[in-house]
TrEMBL record:
Domain of life the protein comes from: Eukaryota
Organism of derivation: Carlito syrichta (Philippine tarsier)
Domain HotDog ACOT-type: 93-218
Gene: LOC103268063
GO molecular function: carboxylic ester hydrolase activity; fatty acyl-CoA hydrolase activity
Cross-referenced SUPFAM superfamilies: Thioesterase/thiol ester dehydrase-isomerase (SSF54637)
Annotated keywords: Hydrolase, Repeat, Serine esterase, Transit peptide
The protein's name in its UniProt record: Acyl-coenzyme A thioesterase 9, mitochondrial isoform X1
Length: 249
């Protein structure tokens, strides 16, 4: 009942389509084949993720500017590839992103994530995961010659969310990380992880798998995306898992 309630809560907020399920308890990352990419990069503040997304798609919180940006997006069709062969292949680490949610060090931000029972609002965490998944896909499909992306990235499916801990501390910083782990012609699988600070170390809390699809600039049809090239046996296993997941759906 608890799993179903969590999924219905997320769906009711219009966050994304629920997938195969949400599990809870101790998770063995070796059995799941979870791959940790260790890249030297500075984490993005959680408040800046949506700012980056607005820059990428040209959206604005001001209605007049937003309408103008949407008109400009119609001109981006020339940047769309006619086939995958016309796009440069990417590596998993090319889309790797880290995001910091400083619950412990920023009390004002913490207030936005607390319930009346002084617990962390899981719905806000799901929103952050969804935004991160979209940003990761834009990193994978980035076109350096275009100021804005000609793609519209849409969350198609939340395949699985595995929770390693039953509760989150409202007074400790959280870090998210993730990357593209599989691609088709117009769809991508994104694997994300969440950690919480305990002492001097970030410890695993949650692992999530999302499936995203690429649409054209006006969200009227599918769009081709860059191929993904696995660079190690671990990455090949992740890629294989992504293929198996879509077959099982």
């Amino acid at each position: 009942m608890r799993r179903a309630a969590l999924r219905l809560c997320a769906l009711g907020k219009g966050l994304f389509t629920p997938g195969r399920g949400l599990t809870q308890g101790s998770q063995d990352s070796r059995k799941q084949g979870i791959f940790h990419i260790h890249e030297t990069c500075s984490p993005i503040h959680v408040n800046h993720v949506r700012d980056k997304l607005r820059e990428i798609v040209g959206a604005s919180t001001n209605w007049r500017d937003h309408v103008k940006a949407m008109e400009e997006r119609k001109l981006l069709h020339s940047f769309l590839a006619t086939s995958q062969k016309g796009l440069p292949p990417r590596r998993m680490k090319d889309s790797y992103v880290e995001v910091l949610l400083p619950l412990g060090s920023e009390p004002e931000l913490r207030e936005k994530y607390l319930t009346v029972q002084n617990t962390v609002r899981f719905g806000r965490i799901l929103e952050d995961l969804d935004s991160l998944g979209v940003l990761i896909c834009y990193m994978h499909t980035k076109i350096h010659s275009a100021k804005m992306s000609p793609l519209s990235i849409v969350t198609a499916l939340v395949d699985k969310i595995d929770m390693c801990k039953k509760s989150l501390s409202p007074e400790q910083d959280i870090k998210f990380s993730g990357h593209v782990s599989w691609v088709g012609k117009t769809s991508m699988e994104v694997k994300m992880q969440m950690f919480q600070l305990h002492g001097d170390e970030f410890c695993p809390v949650l692992e999530a798998t999302f499936v995203m699809v690429a649409r054209d600039a006006e969200n009227k049809g599918p769009a081709f995306i860059n191929l993904l090239i696995p660079e190690s046996p671990e990455e090949e296993e992740l890629f294989r898992q992504g293929e198996c997941m879509l077959i099982c759906l």
